[in-house]
Every structure is written in structure tokens, then in C-alpha cells.
Amino acid sequence: MRMYMIATRFPQSLVISLSLFLSATTLAAELFPKPVEIEPDVAFWLRVYTEIDTSKGYIHDAYNVEVVYETLKLTGQRKADRKLISAAKDRYASILQQLINDRDQLTTEEQRILALWGSNVSNARLQKASSDMRFQRGQSDRFKEGLKRSGEWHEHIEKVMIKNNLPPELALLPHVESSFNPEAYSSAGAAGIWQFTRSTGRRYMHIDYVVDQRMDPFAATIAAAQLLKHNYQLTGTWPLAITAYNHGAAGVRRASKQLGTNDIGSISRNYRGRNFGFASRNFYLSFLAAMEASKHPELYFGPLKVTSPIDYAEVTLPDYLLLESFSRAFNVDSDILKEHNRSLLDPVWQGKKRIPQGYTMRIPCASMVGSASELLASIPTEQRFAEQTPDLFH
Prior knowledge:
By secondary structure, this protein is mostly helical. It has helices at 12-31, 39-50, 78-101, 108-117, 123-129, 140-150, 154-163, 173-177, 198-201, 217-235, 238-247, 249-259, 264-270, 278-295, 297-301, 323-330, 334-340, 346-349, 372-377, and strands spanning 56-61, 68-73, 133-137, 312-316, 320-321, 360-364, 384-385. The chain is elongated, with a radius of gyration of 26 Å.
């Protein structure tokens, strides 16, 4: 029986496309490495993003996230959930203490917990584990909604990254920060899809009591690109630059200097800086998980209907204008304007302050009839102002 090698001629365009894909994939792997020692951590975050929603969470070890003691079902009541989580931690701490004292004649549950650590685990490690438990809420519902929302801005974000000579994969970082929720606020005061704090945001954006560009996905993306580029220039690698987005470049450089390495696996495993907590330690790892979930969304979430980018008319104001004057001239409801001009704050929408001179209003083209320049020119002179509405003091 003869066997023949059949030569197949592929279209040149297909060969080029395949070559570009493989090159891009290889480059991404080089820029965003996944050392063997952090693979379990990335797998943990992939579970968080794709397996359980916000009604459940994992009781797990803070330093060895492979050790997941339980998937806890929450009640939806904050006070009751705190008690539920606390009771679960106490229960597993008690089991760990029992294993430290005696590993003979174990109950089925004690055997299960010991198996999570391995039979050779030291008593010292179990003692540490008894105080290292934490609760991680699931994110699959938020991540899925974030994938849907991201379509509105993803194309813009990628273009901004490329324009700044940055890897386009950085466009996925808002999945980790905010699930692409433009209204997101953290307990630390970070805001918008890129979760800038007010102090960091002011280095790159306009933030005052009338305008907060952190809330504008377009403006905040430009700021994020500048910050990420700055971090990379200071740290020299993308794993460290991304970690610095959460922890600060000075703190990451301190970690690198103390351990004598730029290796993210070593830093995430071994650095114990005072402010280098669980979030900072896991920030790059969760980014890698978000990359994986974003690359293959149908694998984890099934078919998704992703929001399309919006075609905008952009109008830069030559004067200070009241919202009412602008809305009337363009015949666009203020609620629509508010949805697409998120950096304008409540004083503008409440009519207490004017839209600032030089501000660029975004109007969905589908909502606007006529030429933007002509509509702007139709606003009467007496409704145009050279200054902001003054503050009233009593």
C-alpha cells in the first residue's frame, strides 16, 4: 500500500493572513508572558470571570488561590452575607487547626481539606493558611455585560493604543478595572471605565466641579494610554507596567529592586511590600485571564450581542452655553446628551452651571437633523456667555 504526500496550494491572501495572525499571537505572548508559576492564578481568575456570577463566591487561600475551600451561595443581604462569609472562614480555620493537631482518623471533610493542600503540607503552612482565607465574589455576569458594552468603545481604545505605539491588547484592561461600566465608582474614589483616582486623573485630564473627564470613556482612554506608556518607560516590561497601573510605578520599581528581578512570577509570589496587597499582586494575573475570556467569549458565554460603536457629531463650543440653549438648538433631549457627554457633572444638567467654553459636545448623528455648525450658529447671541455662571455664597 503506497502513501502519498498531497501538496496543497493555499491562496496567497490566506497565507498572509495566517502569517500575520501567528506573528501577532507570538508577539502578544512575548509582551504579556504567563510564567508557569502563575498559571494556577490565571486559571483561578478565569473561573471568577466565567464560572460563577455575583450571587456566589469562593472561600479560598489568599496566597495559593488553587486552594478553594468552597463555592459559597450568597443571600443578597449585605449584613447576612458578611455573617455567612465569616462563619465559613471560621469553619475552615477550625478544620485547619484540627489538621495541625492530629492527622489521624480524619473525617471526610478534613480529608478533603487536607487533599487541597497535599498530604505533605507542613503544620506551619496550615497555620498560616488559617489566617489567610479570603472571599472572592464571582464576576461572570459582570464580565458578560462588560463584553457587550465594550463594543461601543473597544475600537476607539485600540486605535488610541496603536497611535501611542502601545500593544492593542491593553484595550482589554477595563474588563479588570470596571467591566467597561462608564458609571463605575470604587470605594477608594476611582471612577469611570479606567478607574482613575482624582489625584492621578488630574495629571492627565480636566477634573473640577463642572467637568470630570474620568467619566468620559474617550478622554479617559487617552489619559490611560499616557499613564501606561509612562509606567512602561519606568518599569521596562508590560507585566510590571500593568501592575503599576494598580500599585503605582514607584511601588513596583521598589518590589523589583528588593527582589533583584523584573520577573512578574517571582514578584507576585514573593514580594511582601506593606501596600502590595491581594489586588496589586493579582492585577496582571487577572488581566491575563480577561485576555483569555475576551479572545474566546462564545466558549464561556455562548453567543453575545455586542454593542456597536456610535457615530458622533462633535461640536466644540466657542462660548459658555446653558444646556437648555444647546438642547433646544440641536433638538436633542437632555437625557440623550447626558448619556453621551458623561464628563459633564450634575451642576450642568441641573442648569446651575453652563457648559464650558471649549468643551466638545458629542451628539449621536442618528439623533441630529441638520448641520452641526448651522445648529450651533442658531443659538442667539444673548444666550452665549464669556464666563461661567458665578458661584453663589450665602
